[in-house]
Amino acid sequence: MSQTVLVTGGSGFIGRHVAAELVENGYRTRVLDALIDQVHGQGQADLPPEVEFRQGDVRDADTVRGALRGCDAVIHLAAEVGVGQSMYEITRYVSANDLGTAVLLEAMIGAPVETVIVASSMSVYGEGLYQGGGGQRLERVRRRPQALRAGRWDPVDGEGHILSPIATDEEKPVDLASIYALTKYAQERAVLIFAEAYGIRASALRLFNVFGTGQALANPYTGVLVNFASRLANGERPMIFEDGRQRRDFVHVRDVARAFRLALENNRANGEVINIGSGKAYAIAEIARLLADAMGVPHLEPDIVNKARAGDIRNCFADISRARDLLGFEPRYRLEDTLAPFAEWVREVGAEDRGPDMRRQLEERGLVS
Ligand SMILES: NC(=O)c1ccc[n+]([C@@H]2O[C@H](COP(=O)([O-])OP(=O)(O)OC[C@H]3O[C@@H](n4cnc5c(N)ncnc54)[C@H](O)[C@@H]3O)[C@@H](O)[C@H]2O)c1
Prior knowledge:
Elements: E1 4-8, H1 13-24, E2 28-33, H2 37-40, E3 52-55, H3 61-68, E4 73-76, H4 83-86, H5 90-110, E5 115-121, E6 130-131, E7 137-138, H6 145-149, E8 164-165, H7 179-198, E9 201-207, E10 209-211, H8 224-233, E11 239-240, E12 247-248, E13 250-252, H9 253-265, E14 272-276, E15 282-283, H10 284-294, E16 303-304, E17 315-316, H11 321-327, H12 335-349, H13 355-364
Parallel strand pairs: 1-2, 1-4, 2-3, 4-5, 5-9, 9-14, 10-13, 11-16, 12-17
Antiparallel strand pairs: 6-7, 6-8, 12-15
Helix pairs in contact: 1-9, 3-5, 5-7, 8-10
């Protein structure tokens, strides 16, 4: 008999792709999602018809108990998602992410499942890994506020030499620099601690920057690419903090969805935290230019703000050796090859530009310097 999987937050950007991946691979799939306004303001996006949908909040114990009934596994994606917003809507983030996970785990005591996979985030690392001049591994790099105020964006060593970023592996200690990161780490630990105590298989996938069609275009707090796309679609230049040379790892949402299924199916993933990225580093301004080209507006050059956002890091891109080894994961989609369909999708659905709103919200609270 096929397994039944509960996907919390399964109506969201990643959740819909996870649900589709599960259905395509023969799983019975149930989604529990509160359909929060910030993500679903423009109406609920479609789930495959085979998916059983339940609207409800993960903090509501009765609802969660009902949703867990008959399930063999849980993929826990429900969360408030946004680094900048988490720095002032603190209660909201801690409540949905930490309390939500607590209620879900408690409900599992009465309805044990075999496996839980939780979505964690690259944000738990803070700055990624660096290498010093002598090739030594630097795990705890931080930028000083004075340096950022002076526009010196790159982390430096004691003598002021710029450090080289290298791919971040899971051995790098966490360094939490935002409330969002704190809640993602709490979710990750809570799931792994709980699962070990109750003899349940569990893994936490540390997702890097996920992109692809279906991300909430009206939500200015998530997704670099959708933010850029919604600016470009409205004839505006993408807004880029700092100087645009900061580097990130963009992983396609379908690769991420497959990684969740592989984590469900692989015993070797038990008890592990695993990076899910593309393994490649992209400069943010370069991404904005590639996307402007793909959207047919190459003249809309990035608007380099030359200011830093509180909680932002300079560089972080994934070492995906562990995902390759434990899950047999290999990214199939490259950013460069998927920008055209992404641009097409943005044109089709239309996009409201909330970028200036986001910047004002952060500036009013002194979170941009
Ligand atoms: N998108 C990324 O780049 C990225 C990167 C790292 C980690 N993640 C993690 O992946 C997961 C999914 O992210 P996403 O990009 O699909 O975000 P999303 O906002 O599109 O989806 C989240 C879903 O959770 C639902 N939700 C929120 N609060 C809820 C609650 N209290 N009860 C029930 N449902 C609730 C929302 O309605 C939404 O459908 C999150 O846990 C996020 O932290 C995402």
